[in-house]
Amino acid sequence: MIKSASVNELNEWLKTGNVVLIDVREENEWAQGYIEGAVLMPLATVSADKIPPVAGKKLVMQCRSGGRSRAACGILTKEVTDLEVYNLEGGILAWQQSGYEVQK
Question: For residue 1, what pLDDT is reported?
Fold first, then answer.
């Protein structure tokens, strides 16, 4: 099931270590800045067997603005029908607009 997560929710989950965050942007976008704790997995490479273990954690997909990460959520839920995955609303742009830092 695809759910949405706000940047504030993601921030709280990151603080508690209760999330696996997957960034589905391309490497050149990642190099410009990424959310600390994210794992890079460009959209073309997304598959359930490549996702790090998520037992007991929330799985969040993230991109620039939310479109590609929603597509990634769709790919994963087709592969694992009972998977609960969150799409970060507004992507890294919303993260930055909310005043949260990115790593470089």
Answer: 87
